Every structure is written in structure tokens, then in C-alpha cells.
Amino acid sequence: MTYTSLNFLFFVLVTVLVYFLFPEKKLRWTVLLAGSLFFYLVAGYKFVAFILFTTLSTYLIALLINKISKNSNATLKSKKAEWSRDEKKKYKNKIKIIKRLVMASALVINFGILAFLKYYNFFSGSLNDILGAFSIPFSMPTLQLFLPLGISFYTFQSMGYIVDVYREKTEAQKNPLKLLLFVSFFPQIVQGPISIYDQLAEQLFEGHSFDFTRFKYGCELILWGFFKKLVVADRAVIAITAVTDSYNSYNGTTLTFTVLLYALQLYADFSGGIDISRGVAQIFGIDMIENFKRPYFSKSISEYWRRWHISLGAWLKNYLFYPVAMSNVFINASKKMKSTKFGSTAAGAHIAKVLPTSVASLIVFLVVGVWHGASWKYVAFGLWNGLIIMISILMQPLFDSAVDRLRINRSNFFFVLFQMFRTFLVVLVGYVFDVAPSFSQAMRTFGLFFTDQNFSVGWSQISELGLGKKDFLVIILGGLVIFIASVIQERNAETTLRQLLDRRPFIVRFALLFVAVIAVVVFGIYGSGYNPADFVYMQF
Amino acid sequence: MKKAKPYLLRLLKVACLLLAILVTVGILQEYVLCRNDQNRIRMRGYYLEDKDSLDMVIIGASDVYAGFSSALAYKNFGYTSFPYATESATAGSCKAQLKEVIRTQHPKLIVIEINGFLYTERNENNEGHIRKFTDNIPLNTNKIDFINENLATADQVEYYFPIIKYHGTWNDYPSGTTGLVTSVQQDIRGTSLLKGFRTVTTQFKPNKKVLNSQLATEEERVDLTPLLEYKLRDLLDYCKSENITNVVFMRMPHLIYKKTYKRVKKANAAGDIIKSYGYDFYNFERGYEEVGIDPKTDFYNWDHLNIYGNEKFTNYLSKLLIDKYQLTGGGLTDKQKEDWDTAVEYYDKLYSFSDNAIKVTKKKKTLGENYKTIKMLDEFQG
To answer: Looking at this predicted complex, what is its ipTM?
Structure first.
């Protein structure tokens, strides 16, 4: 039951009706839970065991951590007068180690399942290649593994919750069914956003009353998501798939075009899917976090990652970047560097200062790369982004001084445009790893960009990618609509497009909504005449 | 009341938007985003006929609307008729077609051509063939029954709402404009000008040995496939159970060669089944000489009579039906008479055009109800 199917819309309609007609307001969350479980069962009954196991292990371990925290706090309180400072410190350290071990057990078990299902064949294949190269007669078997729907998303979300309980930022949930709802909430299970417990849980459990404005905004967001996904992304993916299916047959011009098209397709697909998710949640009165903020308007690659897949970035920042950057190893390394002769120079002091941040960034982006897929090309994707960010942080003073010396006004429109263009190019380089079937093919593609540009050959190849001229026109116009909406949104960051639309006269709103629905009905890619494309981020 | 006003206003606005969307989607589905092909134009033409204004309806496939002309029958014999037929019509749709004819017209006589029963089951499951019928009839219980009985549940929604299937046809424009204009013009006019007739202006020259001379004495039988025999018996059982007595079955004349000879034997077997239920069956394939059809001059391809064959067959069948079943015309209003006279006028023009194209200009052209053909006929100076 994909988010863009009629079945899904019908399912949402029924769930919304049951939710708001459910007499006991306090228990309305059970409707969401039943709906989420039904959705998950329809997706595949064999997946259910995995999500139930993650929920149960998360539930029990969170309770245990909570109990340890409470008991230790009570002990510390009761022994406040008795114990010396050293004794308290010793006890705290002991408790910290116990809590860490308990938390680690949850992380190891659940990330272990994810890693095994997602990466086992990649690692066994790579290991076999290495052993084969040294003629070592050993090979690990290849397994027929399947990925349960949304496993990355619900694993990250539930492990974030465990860490929050460990950090005593949140209380452990005592009701396992409520935790199950937090883990399996159907609008977010397919491709996120990855929510933080404190931000989402209470909204889920609160019994919301029907609010017409929320309902209207939710429907409008769903419609916008449908437009992006069905009209633009699923049309563009036809050409992209044609290229990736026989990658070697295309010249540099066609591949350049494909990477550009992919940038539009990926954004329309992922952000469209998230819009549908957030729109559905909004109808129920639940605000899920925004996952995109016009990422292609970013002026630097760090900014891009703060605007793209925001929930994953926030998760990695909270639960990976800070622990790594603030770890004793990095802090000590930074201090050590500062105390050297090199550290006493201006450049050395800067490098020593930003070293933990830059190395932590590199590690985070390696994880981002691996999270995207079990392949060397994704490792390269992560490394590319991580290295660019690392270099940017390290070279920042140089860049700043160059800008100052050239007397460039940083808010100058053309300079901002240049920064956006530069960032977009860096992003496109990363996308080459995504589009190419393998790392070596990605490398070959970079070569073709410079050595095999032939517009007439490219044009004839592009015209045979399964899309007609009219389809390309629809993609261009659809992309233009998204661009205009993004510009308006960028200029009015505090309000949503829907709020802006609400300020317009009825006839304008009526016309816009009418045109949008008809555009989706007429130009959308759906029905048996077309092969429906899965959401790109479903696979992650 | 004051308190309720904003809510009512909001409800009204939402209702207006939904209504506008529904009406627009409905119009798009009906005229723009659909296959406005000859099947659709013919079927829509049938449904434009006034209720109970047809004396006879022929159910069948393409051989019916090429081989029988309603306008010619009206001109020569005074009775009204219509071919309720689509290209490669399936056997499974025959019962639903019969129900539709009874629901809409109550004709004095219904003739069923058995073409669909003589093919393979692959034809039966062909989505395109099924859709030529289902996409072109209005939503009613017969359509719902047919979809429920014959199509997988997962596919059904696309048959109820064909726009899901055909919304991508915006890509066919401007070439799709001919069908759209024809469809709209026909609806505005309120009547079909050619009464479903379609022909190709040529005389077929077979490149294989024609076996029609052997047909008259062929007594051998080949069983219908189990599914198609079941469908035939189901149709006959339905006729019996509903006490439908004004039904006649027939097999149109075709050019037969080695590959299609098996169909002759199947038609013999089908005839036996039909007769065992007490219904009349006329096999004009075997009796083509009696009709006066000449295999050398009267076909435009293996399976379809041309304008000359059509003239001979329409006259022969009409005489037979009038003699045997006392088929009569009459009872038309002035407006209906006017419409049928117009149809005769266009049939005559079409005949002259075809005759000229076959004998003089030697131009092979497909002529059916579309505005380009009509315009061409209007301008034709025979």
C-alpha cells in the first residue's frame, strides 16, 4: 500500500473517520496504533516480528535504564550526607558504566539486526574479494536477506529514544503499546522523518479533536506531495532508470543530463513523500518535524545537510556527532595539538580548535554514506561530503580572508548565487555516486563529463529514454512550480505556503487547489499503464 | 443560525470545490482522457438512439458493423437497427451486451453473431478487447455485474474509473483531437450519422488458397474450448431462464483459408449447441453463395465484407428476417425519421465514395464515423 495509491487514501480516510469519531478521546491513540499495525501487516506480515522485537527490546531496556537512573538518584540522595565526594563520584561512574552497558546492549542488538540484514552480503562479498585476491581458500556465503519496511527509520528512532532515556532527557514509556505506536506510526514508517521521542510521543498519545484548518492544511500538503511525487519524480525516474539500466551506452552529455534530472527527481520524490507523511499526520493533529528546507538554495555543503533530510542530520548530530566530537580522545588530541609549536601559530591554533568537529563530521558522513546503502559507491558518497565539510571547516579562515581581500559583499545577490551554484555542483558530484551502478562506474562518469560531451549524440540519446518531448515539458514546468514555491517559501521562512495561500481571496485558493488536483489527475504517473515507482528512500 | 453560518459557508466552499473537481474529472474521463476510437463512437452512437426506437440490434464484433448497414436496411426495408458491436468482442461480454440491449431498446429482434465463441481463450482475457466494451458503456448494474464476474478484484477499480487507465492519453493530443471532436459533435447532434457502419475502400486479393467453395458440404465438428462452450451455454441458459424468445444466432460470411478452416468446424459445433436450446442459427459462412457473395470482389480483407458484400448481405439478411420473423419498421417520430433519412443520405454518399475509390481512384481508405470522413463525404462530388 504505497502512499500514492488509492488504497492508501481510502485507508487514511477510514482511519481519520474512526479516530475523530472514537468516543473516548484519551484512547484515540489506540486507533492510530491499530491503523499503523494494519498498515504494517498489509506491507508484509513477515516484517512484523522485526518491528515487534525492536519495540519490545527498546521498551524493556529503556525501563531498565530508567530504573537504574531512578534508583541511583535515590541512593545518591539518601547517601548525600554519608558519602564523601570521591565516593559519590565513584558510585556515579559505576552507575554510568552499568547504564552504558545496558544501553549498548540495545544499540548492539538493534543496530546489529539492521547491519546484518542490510550489510552482511556487502561485507561478505568484499571479504571474499580480498581473501580471493590473496588466494585464501575461504568464502562467506551469500544470504537471501530481506529488509523489513522502514527498518532504518524505526531503528534510528527507537535507538534515539534509548539514548534520550539514558541521558535522562526523557522518561521511559511504561505502556508498551504506546511505545509501539511511537515506533510504528504509519505516516512515518516508510521513509521518515526520524522523530525524536519528546517531540512526537505526546502528540501521538494526546486525543486530538477535529480541527478544520489542520485538516485543510494536511490535505493541501498531501496534494503538494502528490504533485511532486506523481507529476515530477515518477515521470523523471522513467528516464533515469533507462540510463541506469544500460549505463555504459550513454555519453557524457546524457549522463550530465541524468545527474541533473536525478537532483530534481530525488528532491521531488523524497520531499513529496515526506509532505504526504506530514500532511496525513497533520490531519490527526500531529506535527511531524520538517525534513526539507529548500536544500538546493544552500550556500555551503554544511548548510545543505542542515536543509536536506533534516531529521537524519539532527539524529546524527545528537547521537553521533556530539558524542564523537566531545569525546575525551578528540578533546585531548585537540589540547595536545594546541600545546605543540605548530599549535601556537594562527593556523595551528585554528586547526587544533576545529579538529574534533572536522573529524567528527567526516565520521558522521561516512555513516551517512553507509546508511544510504551497502556499496562502496555509498562509502565514497559519504567520504566526498565528509571531506568537503572537513576541508571547509579547516580552511574557513583562508576563505574568509580571501573574501575580505577581494572586498566581496557577502550579501551581494550574485555572490550568494555563486555560493548556491558552487554548493549545488558539489551536491551533484555526490549524486554521481548515487546514479552510477558502482564506484568504478562513478569514476568513469567523472571522466566522461570532461571527455565525452557531444550534444547532438546526447540529444538523440535523451530523446530515447522513454519520455516524449511533452513529458520533458511537464517535468520542466513541474520543476518550475516547485522552484517558484521554494522561492516564495524561502522569502517567507516564518510562515508556510498554506498560510500564505490562506491570505488570498477564496477564488484564488479555489483556482489553485482545483488546478493542482486536475494536474495530478491528468499528469500524474499512476495506474496500470505505468509502473509505479517506489519512494527512493523506502530502500534505506 | 448565526453561529452555524460560518460552518455552512465553509461546507459550501468545500462542496463547490469537490463538485468542480468531480465534474471536470468526469468530463475529462468521458471525452478527453479516453480512447475516442471507432468502438467508442459507435457505442456512444447506440446509446444516443431513443429508447425503444430500434426494431433490431445485432450483437457481435467487427465483421458485424462492416458486413451489415443499418441505414441501408432502413432505406430498403423500413426497419431500424444498430450494430451493438466492438472490435474483437469477447464471448464473455455477450451476455452483458444482450442485457444492455434489452435494458435500452426492447427490440423486436436481437441477432447475435457468434464470432467470439470460435476463438481461443487468449482473446477472451485480452484487456484491450474487454475494454472496448466496458469502457464504452454507461455505469449501470449490467456493467457492474460484468466487471464483478469477469475481472480480478484488484483490477476492477480501473474499469469503473477508466481515467486511471487512460489519463496518460493527454500525450496523444493533438492527434487525438479527431476522436474528441467526433465524439463531442455526435453528442451535440444527438444521433449517429453512419449508425455504426465502417468499411475499407478496397477489394481484397487473397494471397493464400481460398477454401470457401468447400464450406457448404463441411459437416465436421471441432469442439469449442471448454471456457467458451461454458460461456455459450451460460448465454443460452440466460436466454431460456429470462424467457427471451426474440433472439437469433448467426455466423457472418468470411473468406476462409487453411488457418481459419477450424473456425468453420467450430461454428458447426456452436450451431448444434444453439439449436439444442431451441434457437435458430444461420451460418452464412456455409451459405454465402445463397447470399450472392463473391469471394473475389466482396471482401476488404479475410474477415470483413466490403461495401459490395455489405450491400448484398444487408439485403439478404433483411429479407430473411422480415420473411421469417415478420420484422417490421414504423412507429418513428418525425425527428427520428429525419435522423434515419440523414443516415441514409450519408450511407449513399459513402457508398458512392467507396465505389469511386475502389473502381476509379483505387485509393484504400478506412471510412467510419468521424468528423474527417463526414467532412470528406460532404465535399464528395461523385
So the answer is: 0.84
